[in-house]
Amino acid sequence: MRIKKFIIQDFRSIKNSGEVNLEPEITVLIGKNESGKTNILKALESFNGDYEYTDSDLCIYSATKKKLESGEIEKEDVPIITIWFEIEKEDKEKLKEIHSQLTKINTIKITKFFDNTYEVEIDNVDLEKIEEESFNKIAIDFKNEITAFKEKLDSHAQRYSPFSSAKQQYEQILSQIESYSPQEDPNIDTTFSSFYTQLRSLPNQDTYIQNDIESFIKKLDQYKLEFKKILAGEDSIIDKILKITPQFIYFNTMEELTDTVRIDEFLEEREKYKTLNNLLKLAGLDVERLKDVDHYERLAAESEASATITGYINESWKQEKVNIKLRLDSGEIIVYIEDEVGALDPPTRRSQGFQWFLSFYINFTAGSKGELKNTVILLDDPGVYLHPSGQRDLLNTLEKISKHNQIIFTTHSPFLIDRKNLQRVRIVSKEKDRIGTKIEEKFYISKYDALEPIRASIGMTIGDSLFTTKKNILVEGFSDFLILEAFSKICKEEGLNHIELDNREISIIPVGGAEKMPYFSTLLSKENLNFVVLLDHDSEGRKIKKELIEKFEIEENLILTLDKITENPGEDAEIEDLIDFELYLQAVNIAYKKIFKEKLNKEKIEASDLERPNFSGLKKYFRKKKIGQSGKIDKIKVAKALISILPETEINKQNLSKWDSLFNSLKQALQL
Fold first, then answer.
1. What is the pTM of this model?
2. CA angle centred on 497, ends 562 and 636, rounded to 5°
3. Which part of the chain is the OLD protein-like TOPRIM domain (predicted)?
């Protein structure tokens, strides 16, 4: 399961966070010091079953504490954290084992209250009814067991005449057991003990009767345990669901790697040397087994383990090549690091940044395969000791870990923010008038400069860290970038309007989709960097243009839609519509030659195959024939094929006039 969204209420500085959506892999929390970032992580950690709330956890800005003290509300009335979990494929089997009705669900909503109880809600599933049906099934099985046992006793009474005198007595006992209602009995153990005594006291039993009575008592004992679990809320449907939800693990420090330790001490206290233990697991070094092998076998194992862990570390740590050496010598486990010049040092003599990264990598890589399975990792300001390039290595490592574990971390560092994934960023701020900590998903509409904490702590502008030029053209995708760059070069050669990209004064920035334009345009606007937005003129492009103007106050002259350049103003238009269609179709046939052969039994398609000989008609043809992924053209693949044939292609003047017009409009917007 992964967290889809959460609400935190009445917890420390958080009065009510509102619904906060999380990214499926990594979510980044940034904000000023004391804004409540840590409290968000601690609130998520508090969802764990072993966390018990105290009065000090209650929000200092809400009236909840006073209401509890006055008796106006009870602890069970105070929700602290509500989480919506998204069901993944591997969860389906676990849910099926709990109950067949749970196999088709996609989301589970779970709330933990101040009295440490949980409420589970699932759309279109009545958990109380399922629980009741489960209890009823046990009750029916219980009665069937009594009926079957009565038939056995009746058979014994016919077989063994002395026992027939006990018939009225055992019928009366079994009638009491059958009418028994555990929900109304505060002393289940005492009641069942009485049943057992009465059964064992039946007169005139022979060995066969005694054996059957003891077997029945054992079964009654099992039902008694079932009833007790149900009444105590143990092993209920809710309890079973909670057992398969992820655990939350919070880290703000990292246990560093030990240089040396006695083998016997390590084997007795592995938990004390957790990082070393995880290192040996990753390296595949079985210390206990190697204690008693000969010298050469131990050397071979040490060498193999050292090579294994060295390979792992160098894959993620790009600052320098290091060799991690593991030795078992004189009853000790010894760890040391060899650098590129051959210097040997124990881990504790290396930089604090390297020590932290090494410990982090070991614990989380080993943990994601074992103890951290099905966990959400909460990291509070990770990598603070790392150089910026080391922080980038850390981010790459987090990317790998996030394939197995959802990660939420706080940071003040721009180097832990991936500009290609700005949708991961959440802004944390503390608002006045006793409102408390708030979380803003769309940082570009937050009430204060979203990146102020980064600039304040690092002394770096967003222009320094994310963008390299003072004038920027924001385009929707990478194919737009490739096509613009290619036709700008052609226009330059023809002496037409073009964009000068060689002098590093202008950048074309593919933002990864029209919906991300607000992120980038707002960032650039706040940094006083010149920019122009280039949008497709389709339903999404029109929607984003309207939002940029009305909601984000981006000047309309900084937004250019492609219908202004094509021959059909007002109609849908994409950058591909500016390319001579016969030329673009030639690139499509090169890019899809093999696929067309397999799918259509021909190596190329003709314009006559399409309803309309244009890009729109081509898209419709791909959808209809189900070519490519989900029936969509791979624009990047075609753009690369187009670039490969452009040098040998003569572009007609009429087509170049469109590009001349486009580049002229871009230059005017950028004031070039």
1. 0.62
2. 50
3. 469-538
Of 282, 329, 333, give the one whose Cα is nearest residue 310.
Answer: 282
pLDDT band at 454; cut points 50, 70, 90: very low
State how far the Cα of 445 lies from the Cα of 423, in Å rounded to an integer: 13
Counts of helices then strands in the chain (DSSP H, E): 24, 20
- Name the DSSP letter for residue 246: P
Q: Give kind and range of the element (H or E) at residue 309.
A: helix 295-316
Domain boundaries, the chain: 2-24+42-124, 129-241, 251-368, 467-574+663-669, 581-650
Q: How far apart are alpha carbons 349 and 337 in whole angstroms?
A: 9
Rounded to the nearest 5 percent, the helix, strand and coil shares of the chain are 55, 15, 30
Residue 455 has pLDDT above 70, yes or no: no
CA-based torsion, 180, 182, 183, 189: positive or negative: positive
- Kindly report, residue by residue over 118-166, the tens digit of the pLDDT: 999 998 888 878 777 777 888 899 999 999 999 999 999 999 999 999 9
Contact by Cβ (8 Å): 271, 344 = no
Phi, psi of 496 (to 5 degrees): -100, 175
Q: CA-CA distances (angstroms) from residue 13 to 36, 78, 655?
A: 6, 16, 61
Position 631, amino acid:
G
Residue whose tokens read 């500016």: 578
Identity of residue 50: D
Closest of 62, 85, 50 to residue 246, by C-alpha: 85
Dist CA 290 CA 565 (whole Å): 74
590 vs 576: CA distance, rounded Å: 16
Contacts of 440 (CB under 8 A, 6+ apart): 426, 427, 428, 429, 446, 447, 450
Q: Is the pLDDT of residue 582 over 60?
A: yes
Structure tokens at 532: 């122009």
Give strand pairing partners of 261. 333
Cβ atoms of residues 103 and 92 within 8 Å = yes
Tokens of 484: 């613009």
How far is CA 474 from each of CA 30, 426, 523, 540, rounded to the nearest angstrom? Answer: 25, 22, 12, 16
What's the rounded Cα separation, in Å, for the pair 200 and 210?
8
d(CA 169, CA 635): 86
Q: What angle do CA 362, 363, 367 make, to 5 degrees?
A: 115
- Compute the Cα dihedral for 360, 366, 370, 375 and give only its sign: positive
CATH number of 467-574+663-669: 3.40.50
Sign of CA dihedral 212, 213, 217, 218: negative
Give me the residues paired with residue 286 across strands: none
The residues near 368 (Cβ < 8 Å, ≥ 6 apart) are: 401, 404, 405
